[in-house]
Specification:
By secondary structure, the protein is α+β, with helices and mostly antiparallel strands. The protein contains 7 helices and 14 strands. Strands 3-4-5-7-6 form a 5-stranded antiparallel beta sheet. It has a 3-stranded antiparallel beta sheet with strand order 8-12-13. The protein has a two-stranded antiparallel ribbon with strand order 1-2. A hairpin with a 4-residue loop joins strand 12 and strand 13. Helix 3 crosses helix 6. The radius of gyration is 20 Å and the shape is globular.
Length: 305
Amino acid sequence: MVRTNDPEVVWDKPNEVDDKWIQFIDDNVLAKLPEGSRPLGIDRCGSSYWTKGAEIITEQLDGSRVSFFLKARTVTLIEAMVYGEFFSQSTLYAAVPDFTPKPYAWGTYAADPNIHFFLCAFVDMDEVTLPDPQKFARGLARLHTTTVSPTGKYGFHVATLQGLVPQYVDWTDTWEEFFSRSLQRLVENEEKAQGPDAEMKQLVSAIFSKVIPRLLRPLETGGRSIRPCLVHSDLWDGNVATDLDTNSPVIFDSTCIYAHNEYELAPLRPVRHRMRKEYIEAYFKEVHPSEPGEDHDDRNVLYCL
């Protein structure tokens, strides 16, 4: 969730979701709540580029009060974004249930087929104070060391998006090939958006012909190997917080793939982010860099692309 002085503007761009969609509980949302849930209210809670959020407060059959978090969205490709997040979060929750909110459902509003929603457990979060680096690193290490690709390959079983851009998720045998195809898609999207550039074309050619083979091929040749594991794939400080009830890190807004575990650390390098080098260092206290170990920092730079 991103906070600004103007609730209608996120990162200086207008939010297309009207407040009215989070001022009531749509029938299709209500149907996805646990059986016996009695709604007591709905309060606005959080927003982003394309979403607005709300806390749904309910009373359960045993008399307890339980809250759920609702995201409402409406833009092109948003349905794919919603189900991609649901399946990402479901896979993540199955692996590390104490590290991410429990997902409940995704769907489309009964009141308007252009409004799509994602529903998960409500977690009272501290989104201002950065999480403890070592606690965060231990959670991330558990995710990476206990998950295994269901196919033994790199990819994911449903489409996931980075923002509004579909990720490359086709099952691929080697990490070098998967990363190359993923980066090629990124380059093509950039060229469509910005137009061709001769200098950029030359730089990109060198990355594909020299940099990627030099840094990624050694991971899976010469008797070395890596294992595709589940990664959140968008771990920056906007998608990480601290659970106020447990004082433990919590991660959300995932866009998962099965990848090289070090790929996860790329968002922790850019200077624009608040979670940076100390989190990478804490991670490598839990999980050793892949061999060749001396290349791990250069791989991190490459993954930032």
